[in-house]
Amino acid sequence: MSSIIGLIFISLGLAFDFFGCLGLVRLPDVYNRLQAATKCVTIGTCSILFGTFLVVGFSAAGLKALLCIVFLVLTAPVAAHAIARGAHRAGVKLWKGSVVDKYAEDKEGEI
Asked: Taking the domains of the chain in order of start, what are their residue ranges?
């Protein structure tokens, strides 16, 4: 039963990864693409790793999968924030349809 649930998690993870990759191709600017990469691919990869854990159980591979989930959840948002902040500081413009620019508002408040 746990292997069937594991395969379901792996399938959902593959779907999330597919839509994250599709977002990288289709979205208009670096900030939107970063959103797709961070959210969809992080959830998808964590789902694949959790499904792997369910399939293999409490073995060395299963514990490594859990450890990778923890590492991914802790590092992916920090890396995405650093890339977005670096892009904004480097002068990469937002898409013309963007509604708000919180980094620019924060920068104006510092002056």
From this structure: 2-110
